[in-house]
Write a structure and sequence with these properties.
This protein has helices at residues 4-22, 27-53, 69-98, 107-124, 130-148, 154-185, 198-203, 210-228, 236-243, 246-268, 276-298, 304-325, 328-359, 375-389, 395-409, 413-439, 459-477, 483-496, and strands spanning 58-60, 65-67. With 500 residues, the protein is mostly helical. The longest helix is centred in the middle third of the chain and has 32 residues, at 154-185. It folds into 3 domains: 1-128; 152-249 and 261-271; 279-500, no CATH class. The chain is built from 18 helices and 2 strands. Helix 9 (236-243) packs antiparallel against helix 10, helix 13 crosses helix 18 and helix 15 runs antiparallel to helix 16 (413-439). Strand 1 and strand 2 form a beta hairpin. The protein is 74% helix and 1% strand. The chain starts with a helix and ends with a helix. It has a two-stranded antiparallel ribbon with strand order 1-2.
Length: 500
């Protein structure tokens, strides 16, 4: 019995409920409860990650809740970005209230839904029940759709509606896939709830009829792939990221799409050894296409948030391609990039939020010369850009190199070449945007503040950015610091794989 699993997602859920019930006292109360709940959750997630890295498997309720190293990794990332996003929200949302964009009474709703959103993502990392996994993934959509449409203007409502409809319809395919897997597994597993447990399905996956496996995997890829933002199920992502408040964008891109990838890992990889040729090649092709479409769309964007949203699509392609290779090296590289993308993408979104908060616009052509006024934000943005571009000494380089080597070793040189090309285009796109915004000639939009009125954002905003930037650099210089948890997570996936 490991009750800390329950506390992991229970604490932010209770914090969210308390905010909804008592948050009308003052915005300060909502902020305080959200910060306190986030700190406790992060400390608990760190403890769980350390325990699972040492080889422990935490279980509760007869393994209905189960956390290995992979669950610990995902939970710690969710809790970290959740904590940074909540702290960042305090000055960010106060300024939105001051500008009249959001009424102060709605801050209670904002912090309440953020805590429930974080709770639902943490719950997804703990469940061992394939149907509950689907329910919780759908729950993350319901918890976050209010946040996507939080500003209640035309664009935000349209983005929220599109987000809800596409993800709800898309995730329904995953439900059909989960039911098919259950029906195929139940004849080979004793009656009761065991046929619903992912660990039990993994043990007998080679006995499930091939036609059932292939159809269920196609449905799971479509369903959970929609949540992950992979091609061609990515169309919700640019609108949702662009219209949501910036801390929510950091959560959506930083961790929510990783929770979709986590669901794919849990359900799809167990069948790799059974049907390697069919599944692996298809997933690698899907990952490479996602890279290419994402980067080409990013190159055409003038809105910084939409640019980063399409980069999220592209970077998810690396993760999917690494996992698709199916070897230890490929899975390790995919998980490594999942960790790195969480850090540098959340960093970049928070930097863009800082820029738009003081400059009043996210359009690249209307910005320029901000580096002198916002040196910390500029430094952090460049760190994030270099990390995502795969430059040595930053974390993105090591994870991308691992994926390149995994594809080459699997005799998929074409995937390696296209992945390297995508990385070069990513670097060009981000450095071009960074130069224009922070080192360009100056702002030329009539409705933006004068350049001399712009100054660096609050320490509560740049503090989290600086932490993420330092992590990007530290992991790039000394990648061995994350090897234990990545190695344990990779071995957890490999041990779940069926034996043909």
């Amino acid at each position: 019995m490991n009750p800390e699993i329950l506390y992991l997602f229970g604490i932010p859920a209770v914090a969210g409920i308390v905010i909804f019930l008592l948050g009308n006292r003052s915005p300060l109360f909502s902020e305080g409860i959200a910060v306190l709940g986030s700190i406790i959750t992060f400390l608990l997630s760190f403890h769980i990650a350390m325990s699972t890295t040492r080889g422990e498997v935490l279980t509760l309720f007869r393994e209905e809740l189960r956390m290995d190293a992979l669950g610990g990794l995902v939970a710690s990332l969710v809790a970290l970005i959740g904590l940074i996003a909540v702290i960042y929200s305090i000055p960010y949302m106060r300024k939105e209230v001051k500008k009249g964009v959001v009424p102060s009474e709605r801050l209670r709703s904002y912090y309440g839904w953020i805590m429930l959103f974080v709770s639902s993502m943490l719950w997804a990392a703990t469940t061992n029940n394939i149907i509950m996994l689907w329910v919780i993934i759908e729950g993350t959509t319901l918890a976050s759709v209010i946040l996507v449409a939080f500003y209640w203007n035309r664009n935000a409502l349209e983005a929220g509606y599109k987000y809800a409809m596409l993800l709800t319809v898309g995730i329904t395919f995953a439900l059909f896939g989960c039911i098919l897997l259950y029906s195929g597994a139940s004849p080979h597993i004793p009656s009761g709830l065991d046929p619903l447990k992912i660990t039990e399905i993994a043990k007998i996956s080679s006995k499930i009829p091939k036609s059932v496996v292939l159809l269920s995997l196609a449905l799971l890829l479509a369903g959970f792939g929609t949540k992950s933002g992979i091609i061609p199920f990515h169309t919700w992502l640019p609108d949702a990221h662009a219209e949501a408040p910036t801390p929510v964008s950091a959560l959506l891109s930083g961790v929510m799409i990783k929770v979709g990838a986590y669901a794919l890992i849990r359900t799809v990889t167990v069948f790799y050894p059974v049907y390697p040729d069919h599944i692996k090649l298809f997933i690698v092709v899907l990952g490479v296409l996602t890279m290419l479409v994402g980067i080409f769309m990013a190159l055409m964007q003038d809105d910084l948030k939409r640019l980063l949203a399409y980069h999220s699509v592209s970077q998810m392609g690396y993760i999917i391609a690494g996992l698709g290779v199916g070897t230890y090296l490929g899975i390790y590289g995919g998980l490594f990039h999942l960790l790195n993308h969480t850090l540098f993408k959340a960093l970049l979104f928070l930097c863009v939020g800082a820029v738009s908060s003081v400059a009043g616009t996210r359009l690249i052509h209307a910005l320029g010369g901000l580096g002198r006024k916002m040196p910390i934000t500029a430094l952090c943005f460049f760190v994030g850009a270099l990390a995502m571009g795969g430059i040595p000494l930053f974390n993105g380089f090591m994870s991308k190199l691992t994926i390149f080597l995994a594809c080459a070793k699997a005799e998929m040189l074409w995937a390696t070449v296209l992945a390297v090309l995508t990385s070069l285009l990513t670097l060009f796109c981000l450095l071009h945007a960074a130069y224009r915004v922070f080192m360009g000639k100056g702002m030329d939009a009539a409705n933006t503040p004068r350049n001399e009125d712009i100054k660096e954002v609050s320490p509560l905003m740049w503090g989290g950015m600086l932490v993420l930037a330092l992590l990007c650099f530290a992991i790039g210089v000394y990648p061995q610091m994350v090897f234990p948890i990545l190695d344990a997570s990779t071995r957890a996936i490999v041990s779940m794989m069926a034996t043909p």
